[in-house]
Request: fold
Amino acid sequence: MDIVGISINHKTASIELRESLHLSQDEILEFIPILKQNVFSEGYVLSTCNRTDIFGIPKSGKITYKDIQKNLLEFKHVEGLSSEHFLNYFSCGAVKHLLEVASSIDSLILGDSQIHGQVKEAFFLSEDLGFSKTLLHKLFESAVRVGKRTITETKIGEGAVTISFAGIKILEKIFSSFESKAALVIGAGETGELAAKHLRESGIGKLSISNRTYSKAELLANKLNGDVIEFNNLKKSIHKFDIIVSATSANGFILDFEDVKLMMKERKGKMCSILDIAIPRDVNPKVADIDGVFYNDIDSLNIIVNENLKKREKEIPLVNEIIMEEMTAFFKWYNTLNIVPTIKDFRDFFEEIRLDEIEKIKYKVHDYEYEKVDNMTKRIIGRILHNPTWNLKRISETGTNFEEAKIYSDVIRELFNLDNKAENKSDNDFDNNGAK
Amino acid sequence: MNNVMQIMSYSLLVLYLITFLSYLYDFFVENNYFLSIKRIVLFITLIFHVVYFVERTFFLGHLPIITQYEIFSLIAFSIAFTYFLIELLSDIKGTGIFILLFAIIFQAKSSLFIQDVYVVNHVLQNYPLGTHVITAILGFTAISISSAYSFMYLLLYKNIKSNNFSIIFKRLPNLEILEKLTFSAVIIGFVLLSIAVILGLIWLPSAFPEFSYFDSKIISTITVTIIYGIGIILKTKRILIGKRFAKFSIYGFIFSVLSLMLTSVIMDSFHNFSN
Reply:
């Protein structure tokens, strides 16, 4: 199989390099015509914040992974990026890689279901640009099936495997509903934003943001339909919140033991969960001793994450089984691609002979006799060709020995001279004339 | 004791044990297939319990609410039946072992010590007694269940506090739900015990000539009811919430069981119905 491709991902390059190389949709739209012109007859480009994969069917046998790398680096120059940051794939390995990506076992976060949608998007884009034909389309179908099956048949996507989700899982064990709850996110940086997003997606009733730089808090609050608590007024306001997520880069504690104790007094003992996802910690861990306060820092949240990751890792053999099944089915189909033209030519060859012969009696017999002979010859040809056709398909579909199917196909083509139809036609004419 | 009833009584205990083990297994090995099996086992146990009551009523000629051990069996039934309804009507799973444990304790005591009482005082065979006893039993059932939920609350509370995300963390419903269930059960228990006390105070003086308002059982039941009443007020005023309310519910239950045992076993009371 001719498929070839390259991949740069979390195993091969730093996040800075991956981010620099990331291709936006507009860039992919621009890049695919270049690939079409220089490298592939059909292919696809998958680019996420964690990986960039470029795979396809080379336009000629001379094209290698080096050409793909060259075209990519010419299209998007990234300082410090070299060929050693790429993984190169061919044939079966390329198909396996694509299915592994679609299954999410090759993701940075094992079992991350986001990749399913990203793979689909990449293929749809390819199809829209006429860059995907029969082979890629079939491969895409297999990839989508692998993605679906990993979700339904395994537990690889179960359990929280990020700090934010682990935090949400703990909150779900404390509160029955988030709709009536108020949450405060301290820190409007990347981590704070992610936590605020997760809270909003979980259906939190009231979301407030506090940040040393007011404008940043305001920006995030506007984005997530929340309000802003002035950083200087933080301690006076914290008692209003059932959930406090702290994710600042401050060096000392933002909330100390006495602050939280006072807060609980004002809350009259009403439960409060504090998720301290900052490094170094923003909240004095001693607050965990206060009744009704549930304090979790990165280390405690990591307990959940690691436990779930271990569970997901145990699912990898099951996912690999699914990948193998889909690979076998794909190659079964692929191998028949070579045999199908032979079968068609083989049948056409016999049909032409039949038509030639039956034509000779067309005006010598009655119409009903002609019809009978026509049907009879069709049946004879059908019966003669049944076994060789069926066996050819069977040999090719076993998928284990591509060469074997090719040998049979070549022998048939050679014996019946299927590659030279014109010659066959003249031979028939000669025989016919001779017979006359 | 009648052989048939004895066999049935022991079989009932065995069935409760099987039910408990089914719930225990499901608690540790989450399995959708087993979820329906354990429910079927509980349902069979409940049906068998009803048959047992019918059998006792038929043989003894009175409702099985006369002796202390008959009442224990009735409490076991009402705990298991209430839990069965809770599980069917709500999506709350994983609490079965904690509640059914109470049912087993009551049924074990009943099965091991129950005796057949054929001759019953005629005052005990009337409508007010039935209502008084049944409301009292249901009231005790409710406070037993409330203490089971409180126990689960404290267990989960401790698990979350100590970052122990084990099976308890995974299988129990959240703290707010457990608190709501505890509070609901306490309210139901309080209302039913209040009805039982009021009915008793109205009916007992006419039924028992030796009736005294200073009877130990009356005092203890009224005390239990008042304690729960105060607890409800404090909870609605948000003075007793969360962990404190859970502890209150457990202490209330321990107090009610101890006072019931003390007044039944140690102190002399006209409430001794089997005589």
About this structure: Residues 262 and 301 of chain A are 25 Å apart (CA to CA). The longest strand of chain A covers residues 40-47. Chain A has 16 helices and ten strands.
